[in-house]
Design brief:
heterodimer; A: alpha/beta; Rossmann fold; 9 helices; globular; B: 348 residues; alpha/beta; seven-stranded mixed sheet
Amino acid sequence: MATIAPQDELLDAPLRVDLYRTMVLIRTYEERIRQEYHADKTPGFDIGKGKVPGEMHLAAGQEPVAAGACAHLRPSDAVTATHRPHHLAIAHGVDLDRMTAEIFGRDGGLGHGRGGHMHLFDPAVHFSCSGIIAEGLPPALGQAFAFRRRGTDDVAVAVTGEGAANQGAFHESLNLAALWRLPVVFVVEDNDWGISVPRSASTAVADNALRAAGYGMPGERIEDNDVEGVYRAAGRAVARARAGDGPSLLEVHTLRLWGHFEGDPQSYRPGLATLDEADPIPRYRRRLLEEGVLDEGRVEAIAAEAAGRVGRAVEAALASPEPDPATATAYVFA
Amino acid sequence: MTLVDQPAPAAGAAPPRRLTMAKAMVEGIAEEMERDPSVFYLGEDVGAYGGIFGSTTGLLEQFGPERVLDTPISETAFMGLATGAAVEGMRPVVELMFADFFGVCMDQIYNHMAKIHFESGGHVKVPVVLTTAVGGGYSDAAQHSQCLWGTFAHLPGMKVVIPSNPADAKGLMIAAIRDDNPVVYLFHKGAMGLAWMSKTKRALGDVPAGAYETPIGTAAVARPGRDVTIATVSLSVHHALDVADELAADGVDAEVLDLRSLVPLDREAILESVGRTRRLVVVDEDYHSFGMSGEVVATVAEHDLDLLAAPPVRVAVPDVPIPYSRGLEQAVLPTPERIADAVRRVLG
């Protein structure tokens, strides 16, 4: 289990490689889903067509949040994610084959095709997500409550976006978690955009971490989409939660590299042409290469490993049968 | 904690005791909390106060603040907390003080509590009991008097139970806590036997000692009769029984069917009763349109259009918010007078 890393010391090389590897696996996955998603929606674009229908919110650019935070977690810890959940699911070790089958709407999926990509539940690693802004936070409180009652030091990481920080559920959850000193780490992914509305037009404070003070908990903002910064801050927050000292709030200034959903023309968004310059993965790769933590051979091996893993997941998904329409009313009640 | 006015009888003997519906409900909760350490209760004013409508009286003294938790006025947060704890294997009972308050937390109820089992393809269970007070009749106006059970019942993923009497209040509570699904448990303020509110005489009733379950999804014939079926729930069961007694003097033999659960709805019991009486009055303290009363009538119509000898009559709250002023409120509630009129009408 990773421990708190002093701010002024370099992280261990194997850990840094792991962070990079996780980010590459996520990006490889999102690129492949994007490709599969668009492959059979032409001519034109019909959202309901193809082997991956419906809304698709991909997390390219937000990998540092997932890799940095989930590196501190074990399968018995909970993660609740948003409508944009793949990066967190992958980093927390959700079963990739069954997750992919769910995204493809197959019977072998995590939810037998009932949930789809916004409703991924893997109880083996206490992972869940919700398509409703900020409403994934309250259940995380309950998971944390149960962990504490069970007498473990497991924690719940409750992730949401910067747009959600203006929802009532966000504020109610921070207050209750702090009041009851629940082992929760709140993580706000600030990707600058609530669909088409920039945070400057939605949020009265420049830094959502400041809001932590209103609830008597520590708050910290991590700039520059820096995976190592996320890792260090999450380490402090997770350690605090495990020690029984209550919740923390982190905000990560991250990047929505692609549209809100696939098919989003992003005509509202300036600077699209130079967006790739802010991509956190090449930047981290260059840094690790420069510092001798990685070499080109290792980079290629990591990429090949990720491509292989994602390829197997997609193959497994496509090999899984479609759910039988006659079972459409199953699973309403236990 | 003393829940009863006399010492509890030894196991095996167990003669019924006379309890209010509130005390019977609390007894069911307490017995399950004794039996199962994963059961806990949370909500607003459920600790030292004992529940505004007596739903938790004595539980804090018996089980302590670790298992009987007063929450902040943050229904979204604590409703979701209950769901998350249930996902992790606990069995929370979470109280929404008034059903009317669901507006501030409905997303946690219908999009999370009710849907997670389905979305997970059956892999995640959510054994939450959501208790909530319903009903009017005491001039609490438009935001504190509604029943709204039709809304919960309309949305898939929640069982919906509505006890009308003390014995069922205990048995349905135990069944709800033991159920692996979300169960919405609606108790009528006017049936709880509260000292500070006018109540039906049947708010006090025989309650068996010890644990027993009233099966969810089974209706009960509260009064057998031959001439007409009055199908209803909650406080209206008592009004219907009063009306039946009154009409018996005129030679009318009315059957009162206490549906007890809306989800699942005991459609067979409805069809069986109406099959005998061939006349149907549905009494519903919820709004008239798109709700329970329409569902009961549709159940009969879909089964056999010739089952009824006369058109059915619905007695419900007309589609208007509950008014404050006493006379106005009584004009919209399903009062005994309106029920009696409906029965006479359906009998021609």
